[in-house]
Design brief:
By secondary structure, the protein is α+β, with helices and mostly antiparallel strands. Helices cover about 25% and strands about 20% of the residues.
Length: about 220
């Protein structure tokens, strides 16, 4: 009997080589960065004196207003008395210039008379007018001048008799000589200087003085 053929053993197939997986690239070591220098913390802004004052004023303005209390009648009365006393004190301190004022003068004078305060006599030398004048050589005294003049008080009040000055000038107007006379020197006998120069009153005086020489070409009277 024919022998049954033994099956041939199958040759093992060659295994296909597996694709190699790409290896992960190792990260390169990073170079150390240079450390930045540490900066000091910023300083708070400084305020100058003006800015501080403005800031304080702004803070004070934002404060809550205080509750106002109405003044009582007694407080109003006290304030009025103090104000009146202050006005009277100011009027007393300035009584002299106030008395010379045309509008306030009579009121100030009347108030001083009631209160017993003293006032100096009012003076207004500019209101004294020269009505007549004459300067000539003295008929009896060589080297002397004889001066005669008539004055009037043009003010509407009694004022003290003024100082009378005689100023003599040369041809250019420059003063050459001057002489001042007090009321005791020029008032005629019998005239009381304490009574004052009445409004509208006239006064005639005669003066004797030394002749300053031929340089004098003009003269004028002045009052103080």
């Amino acid at each position: 009997e024919p022998e049954a053929a033994e099956p041939e053993a199958a040759e093992p197939e060659a295994a296909e080589p597996e694709a190699a997986e790409p290896e992960a690239a190792e990260p390169e070591a990073a170079e150390p960065e240079a450390a930045e220098p540490e900066l000091p913390p910023p300083e708070p802004p400084r305020l100058d004196a003006l800015a501080r004052a403005q800031a304080v004023a702004a803070l004070e303005a934002t404060e809550l207003p205080m509750r106002r209390r109405s003044a009582s009648p007694g407080e109003w009365l006290l304030a009025g008395v103090l104000l009146l006393a202050l006005l009277l004190q100011a009027a007393y301190a300035f009584r002299v210039p106030l008395a010379r004022d045309a509008g306030l003068g009579p009121w100030v004078v009347a108030l001083c008379e009631r209160l017993g305060c003293s006032l100096p006599p009012r003076r207004l030398p500019a209101a004294i007018e020269v009505l007549e004048r004459e300067v000539r050589s003295h008929p009896q005294m060589p080297g002397a001048l004889l001066v005669s003049a008539t004055f009037a008080n043009g003010a509407d009040f009694v004022q003290p008799y003024p100082l009378v000055g005689l100023v003599m000038s040369d041809v250019s107007g420059a003063p050459v000589a001057a002489r001042w006379f007090t009321p005791d020197e020029y008032l005629p006998p019998g005239v009381d200087a304490r009574a004052g120069f009445a409004p509208g009153a006239r006064l005639h005086l005669v003066l004797e003085l030394e002749d300053p020489g031929p340089r004098v070409v003009s003269y004028q009277f002045e009052f103080l």
